Amino acid sequence: MDASPFSAILASFLTRVPGAIAAALVDAEGETVDYSGKYDLFELKVMAAHFRILLGTAGALVGETAPPSELVVRGDRKTVLVLLAPEGYAVVVVMRRRAGFTRRELASQTMMRELSREAGWSLPQPSPWETVEVRADRRGRPVALEAGTEGLVGLEVLGKLGRYGYRVRSQEGHEFTLVREPKNHWYADTPLRPRT
Q: What are the Cα distances from residue 10, in Å, to 37, 41, 58, 150, 151?
């Protein structure tokens, strides 16, 4: 059986986040909509339902002014991450112990945008970040970007932003920011526009 679009999006997220083992998309009542990863399915569904209810309870405790958008619970053997999605849905991620606090912000934003696009949800604040394929030099600095049918597009580094970000200019003159997250996955704040 082929993977559903939701399962494929969850699988992509799992490959981008260090320590992520399995993920389940659940509705507001805790019913699993779809899942991905290598984990006992029954245990994943029960855990996802339980943690979706916990996120809802935490939201009820703090009220509507600042509902939590995520919950991280670190245990002796594993960590569970719960990310609130639009319309009461959530993504529950089972991770290795201590993995819940790794850099994953851009991977999470990208996953939420892709899930929202597939489900027809509207995001309150859509992320500008897109996943991109980047070629880097020996030092890890970006030198080229995969641009679909156009092939590789050369990049000029204009400046470095912190430890993982670069302001770059394409050979066509388009300026944007690239950020490298764990596992050498890259994100651009503005997708490269095709030549006209």
A: 8, 15, 24, 28, 27
Query: Measured between alpha carbons, how far is 82 from 1 in angstroms, rounded to an integer?
Result: 27
- Angle between helix 5-16 and 105-119 (nearest 10): 180
Q: Which residues are paired to 135 by β-bridges?
A: 144
Strands (E), the chain: 20-26, 32-37, 70-74, 78-84, 90-96, 130-132, 134-136, 142-146, 152-161, 165-170, 175-181, 185-188
CA distance 174 to 193: 8
Task: Give the integer Cα–Cα distance in Å for 103 and 116.
Answer: 22
pLDDT at 58: 83
Place of tokens 């302001």: 167
At 96 the pLDDT is 92
Whether the Cβ atoms of residue 81 and residue 72 lie closer than 8 Å to each other: yes
Per-residue pLDDT tens over the stretch 152-173: 889 999 999 888 899 999 888 8
Tokens for 114?
């892709």
Which of 65-69, 116-120, 123-127 has maximum average pLDDT? Answer: 116-120
Structure tokens at 10: 């969850």
Q: 180 - beta bridge partners?
A: 186
Tell me the β-bridge partners of 181.
185
